[in-house]
Every structure is written in structure tokens, then in C-alpha cells.
Amino acid sequence: MLNFRLSDAQEKLKQKARRFALEEVLPEAWRFDQKDDIPLGILQKAFEQGIMNTDIPREYGGQGLGLIEAALITEEIAAACPGVATSLFDNSLGMEPIFLCDNDQLRKKYFPKIAKAFKLICFATSEPTMGSDVAGIRCRAEKDGDDYILNGTKYWITNGGVADYMTVFATVDPKRKHEGICAFVVEKDWKGVTVGRPIPKMGQRCSNTAALNFKNVRVPRENVIAKPGEGFALAMRTFARTRPIIGAFAVGAARSCMEFAIDYVKRRQAFGLPVAGFQAVQFKIAEMYQKVETSRLLVWRSAWEADGGTDATVAASIAKLYAAESALEVANEALQVFGGYGYTQMFPIEKFLRDIRLYRIYEGTSEVQRMIVAGHAMNAYEPIMPPLEDLPVMREKTPSEARAEGQGIWRCRMCGYVHYGDAPPVECPYCFFPAATFKSYPPKPSKPAGEEGVPLKKDSKKDAG
Ligand SMILES: Cc1cc2nc3c(=O)[nH]c(=O)nc-3n(C[C@H](O)[C@H](O)[C@H](O)COP(=O)(O)OP(=O)(O)OC[C@H]3O[C@@H](n4cnc5c(N)ncnc54)[C@H](O)[C@@H]3O)c2cc1C
């Protein structure tokens, strides 16, 4: 049975996150945006109130909640400030590879620390020279006895400047591409680790983004998350579980833009009427509403798949892609109905538009999501319809009528023309391709060589279906 109703516990959690968003995040969001600074105090409060790190399993001292719960929380936080939501969820992104890996000792070492005290952990695949092409990592990991020595730079790392721990993807040999990628937990205080200055950004200025530099950093064997050759797949499995949450951010942020737009158009007058009275404006609101609702369904669906333990890669990409693109459209149209005021910093849409713009870029750009969805649709997806050349598109006669007249059915595989007769025509009367282009219908389940092109027997009992 399908059910979209939240449990009592989920509803309570959502309300708790909503209160936190309205009381703690919203009043501070613009100030920190202006300062271009991460509000660590707010994150610490979120930690203390149990709306951060909710996915740490109970056996390591966490709440053991799923992605649905994470989606509920992050929608609310992003509705108040997308930058704070990014900062807050980044711990889950940083912990996910540890959660997914085989090294239970690593979970035992770090999860209880992160569950008990306010600690930040970031996730680092991207570098100054690559982002989308994860197999193109250059940061080097060289084996030294049981340890690894890290050298290289990571770029664009959310919470990079403030995190205590770092989940770092590196390579034993850049030429080996996917096969060389490995991953480690690194601690900020280790010798050779340096963090860069906060990167000045267009939006999401309430989140910290910085580079990490490693100079001969010794990583002990116990901190290996993924051995060489296992890191790439681990990064992809991580994204399948974190992209639904980027979708949830987008839902929350778009929802606020829509709400502000509705509020504004009901108050604003033009041509003697509230702007809300114009159908052109109502249609914009309708578009916003349906995009928010549709995005949320896709997010919940992908989170539900991931929580169920199945590979949510495709659902997660669809959710992230659709929600990110939709949120940007919603914010853009919200700004439009605000008229000139929308373009000022006096109203909230300007900041939301800047913040929302990032959703199409991080954790895999919209182009990368399209590549994943296209790859699935064209290679893995199993079609229901028969191949085009086997389609029973008959115009003059049904297959049984043709059979009753003792005729075979022949389809030109080039232009689709259907010919009735004992044999295919010498050439197609439409596209002039030769008889060999014709295929007999109905298709045979397995086609031994030479059978193709043999006309149906008069007494054939087979139907075209
Ligand atoms: C604010 C912010 C926070 C971030 N946080 C993190 C973080 O915490 N950890 C982390 O590891 N990274 C992080 N990133 C990096 C982010 O994931 C990358 O920026 C993103 O994956 C895109 O990589 P890129 O910037 O190198 O663009 P590129 O990969 O260089 O791509 C440039 C353009 O080309 C397109 N493109 C690339 N390849 C193809 C292709 N095959 N087909 C079609 N189009 C293609 C891309 O879609 C993009 O439009 C963050 C980025 C930002 C801006």
C-alpha cells in the first residue's frame, strides 16, 4: 500500500524543525548573509536540539533516523535559510561514506564523538581542477607501510574551514582513474593539514566553503574508508543517499519564495486591483505551487527508496534535478511578481534566488543528473512496448484478416511501410530500400538464421496480440 501520511513521530519532528527554523534561523539569516559568515551558534543549537546528525545509528549513540526524516527537517531549515541548511546537513554528507563502508572500527571511532559533542565533518571530492569528473581526482595517496601519505588540494569544501574531521577522496595514481580512487577520514589538527580562506560566494553565504590542503599528511590504516579502486563507487553510493536532501533544500526554499509571492500579490495594487486579481499572476502562483508539490513527492520517493535499502541513484538524480530546476524557476517568478521590490535587498527573494542558484551546481550539476537519468533510460530501463520494427501498426488489415487471406505481413524496417503478400516486395514503394529491409510480422521470439522473411503459413494459429 502506498501512503504519503507522516507518522506522529515524523510530524512532531517536522514541527520541531519548523519552530527552530522560524525562531532561530530566520531572524539571523540576512545578518549572516551580509557578513558572509557561517552561524556556528545556530548549528550548535541545532545539534543540542537533536535536529542535526539524525542519521547516526543508535548503536553509535545517534537517533538512527532515516532520510525521510532528514528531508522533513532540511525542508524546514532551508525554508528559513538555504545556507544554514547546507551547513547543517553537511555532517550527514561527511559521515555517509563512513556509514556505507566496510570499516566498522571507523564508525565506532568517529560516530560516538559526533553524536556526543558538537563536531563538524566535511566531505571532499572536488578539487581546483575537477568537480563533475570524480575519476579525475589528483590529490595523491601514497602507501607507506600500513599508512597512506596524502598530498594535494581539495576545493569548494562545505564547512571545510570549520570542520573537525574530513572525509577525503584521493587517488593512488591519477592515470588509473576510477580504479585509483580511495577515501580516508582526516582530522583537521593533523600535521600537514591547512584550510583555505572562506571562498567569497554569490549566495549560500551562511555556509562556509573553503579549500583543504594536504602536505605529507600521514593517514593511519584504521582511517581508510575505501581502498584504492573502491572509492569511486563509494562516492557515487554516497550521492545516491544525499541528493534527495539537496532536493529537500530546494523544496523548502521554493516554498518560501511562493509564500512570499502570494503574500505580496494580495497586497500590491495595480490598475486599481490587487495584483493577485490578474489571471497572469494567478497562473504564476499555480506554477509555483505545483512545482513545490511535485518536487516534494520526488524527494520523498527517492528518500523512501534509499531508506528501503535499494539503490536510489536514479530516483535521487531525478529528485535533485527536478527540485533544483523548479526552485530556481519559482524564485525567478516570485521575484517577477514582486516587481522592482523583488530586485532589492529589502525583500527576501533576492537572497533566496542567490542561494537557490547553487542547487543546480553542487552534489552533481543538473547536467550530471541528466547524464545519470539518460544513461538509465537508454541502457538499464526495460521498455514495455515492443521494438518499433515489431509494432503491430496495421492500417489496411488486422493480422488475423491477413492470415485468413493466407497473406504474410512484412514491415519495412526503414520507413515502417506494411506490405501484405507471400513475400516482401522487391523494393519498398515508399523508401525504395530492398526486400532484405523487410521483416515478417509477428516477430518470432527467437530468430534462427534464415527464418526472417519467411511468410506466415495459412493455417498459423498464432495471433499478433
Ligand atoms: C558553494 C559550493 C559548495 C560545494 N561543496 C562541496 C563539498 O562540500 N564537497 C565537494 O567535494 N564539492 C563541493 N562543491 C563542488 C561541486 O560539487 C562542484 O562545483 C560541481 O560538482 C561541479 O564541478 P565543477 O565546478 O568542477 O564544474 P565542472 O565539472 O568543471 O563543469 C563545468 C560545467 O561543465 C558541465 N559538464 C561537465 N562535464 C559534463 C559532461 N560530461 N556533459 C555535460 N556537461 C558537463 C557541468 O555541468 C558544468 O556546467 C561545492 C561547490 C560549491 C559552488
Descriptive labels:
465 residues; alpha+beta; four-stranded mixed β-sheet; 13 strands; 15% strand; globular; disordered C terminus; binds flavin-adenine dinucleotide
**Number of helical elements:** 11
| Rounded Rg | 28 Å
Bound molecules: flavin-adenine dinucleotide
Q: Please report the total strand number as a whole number.
A: 13
Strand content: 5-15%
Order of helices and strands: HHHHHEEEEEEEEHEEHHHHHEEE
- What's the N-to-C terminus distance? 31 Å
Low-confidence stretches: 447-465
TL;DR?
By secondary structure, this protein is α+β, with helices and mostly antiparallel strands. The protein has helices spanning 8-35, 40-48, 67-80, 82-100, 104-116, 231-267, 279-307, 313-337, 349-356, 366-380, 399-404; strands spanning 121-124, 140-144, 147-158, 165-171, 181-187, 193-195, 209-219, 224-226, 269-270, 273-274, 408-412, 418-421, 438-441. The site of flavin-adenine dinucleotide has 24 residues, from strand 1, strand 3 and helix 10.
